[in-house]
UniProtKB/TrEMBL annotation:
The keyword Cell membrane applies. This is TRAP transporter small permease protein. The chain crosses the membrane at residues 12-35, 47-65, 86-107, 127-144. Belongs to the TRAP transporter small permease family.
Length: 185
């Protein structure tokens, strides 16, 4: 199962990179057309917006799998193994509930907008809201798997407080460590 999830994440990474490249081409092409030829490609703005929404949602799926979301483990790191497991399970349960709400809302919006056409491209607006549906289904599956692993005890101690510090915090800590080491000599 983990093999297929890693493969899926690589596919989503590739999809995000492709959507980003498409956005760059569409937006840059439109800028060149406006300033160079006093014309514009109207559909490029709409397609770039759609590509941005899809890239954001697919990238968020990858972030959930990699546990790359923002958070603070100031309290959690002070707890024992049982407390860490309880906090992780609580956070996973809340994320599952919120993702389920987003999935239901996106599904309803896609259904409502199935026959509504985008103003320029004429594409069904259900495709726009479909990004939320795809996000919801994929993230719900990932979160349910992670919660099951938490309940069954498959996670090691390092997985129970999975948050990573930002690069800025690490750099500041390195500076302070260097200063304290300098004062010791």
């Amino acid at each position: 199962m983990a093999f297929w999830i890693r493969r899926g994440m690589r596919v989503l990474d590739l999809a995000c990179a492709t959507l980003l490249a498409l956005m760059v081409v569409l937006v840059f092409g439109n800028v060149v057309m406006r300033y160079g030829f006093d014309a514009s490609i109207t559909v490029s703005e709409e397609l770039a917006r759609w590509a941005f929404v899809w890239m954001t949602m697919l990238g968020a799926v990858v972030a959930v799998e990699n546990r790359g979301h923002l958070g603070s483990n100031l309290l959690v790191e002070r707890l024992g193994r049982g407390g860490r497991r309880a906090c992780l399970l609580l956070s996973q349960t809340l994320m599952i509930a919120i993702t389920a709400l987003l999935l239901v809302g996106s599904w309803q919006q896609a259904a409502i907008n199935w026959s509504v056409r985008a103003p320029v491209s004429g594409l069904s607006m259900a495709g726009f809201y479909g990004a939320g549906v795809v996000f919801g289904v994929l993230v719900l599956g990932l979160l349910l798997r992670q919660a099951l692993r938490t309940v069954t005890g498959e996670l090691g101690d390092e997985d129970l407080a999975p948050l990573q510090e930002s690069e800025d915090v690490a750099q500041i800590q390195d500076l302070h460590l260097d200063r304290s080491a300098a004062w010791r000599h």
